[in-house]
Amino acid sequence: MAVQCFGCDLGTNTIKIYSRESDSIFCQKNMVAIEEKKGMIAYGDEAYDMYEKAPSNINVLYPMAFGTVASITYMQEFLRAFLEDHAKGPLKGADFYMALPTDVQDRVFSTLVQGMGLKSKHV
Questions:
Q1: Which of 23, 38, 82, 99 would you call most buried, defined as having the most Cβ atoms within 10 angstroms of its Cβ?
Q2: Contact at 8 Å (CB) between 101 and 12?
Q3: Distance between CA 110 and CA 123 in Å, rounded?
Q4: Which residues pair with 123 in a beta bridge?
Q5: What distance in Å separates the CA atoms of residue 85 and residue 80, rounded to the nearest whole number?
Q6: pLDDT in tens, 52-85
Q7: What span, in angstroms and rounded, lies between the C-alpha atoms of 70 and 34?
Q8: Tens of pLDDT along 14-42?
Q9: Residue 2: CB partners within 8 Å, gap ≥ 6?
Q10: pTM of this prediction?
C-alpha cells in the first residue's frame, strides 16, 4: 500500500494542501468557527461565510496570524478535518511536507502535525 503524501502551505489567509495520491491541490480560507461547549463547527470557506454574521456564541477566527500559529489546538482540528474530508484512504502513517515562513518555526509546525494523532511517518 502506498503511503499518502501531502504538501501543506498554511498561510494566514488561505491553506493549500497538495495530495500526491490524487495529484490535486485543495484550497480553503484559513478560518474556523468555534461554538461554545461544542468546539469547531465549521472550517475553511464555510467558516469564512459566517465571519461577522455569526451569533455571539460562535467565534470565527484565524488559527494562523501573521505567519505563525495563533491557536495550535484549532489549527490541528482544522487540518485534521480538512485532510479527512479531501484525502482518499487512511491518513495514518502519511508523510507531510510543510512550507515554513521562517526556519524558527520548524518545531511548531512539526508539533502541529504530530499532535493530530495521525502517527505521521515524516514531517
A1: 82
A2: no
A3: 6
A4: none
A5: 9
A6: 999 999 999 998 887 778 888 888 888 888 888 8
A7: 14
A8: 999 998 888 899 999 999 999 988 899 99
A9: 21
A10: 0.79
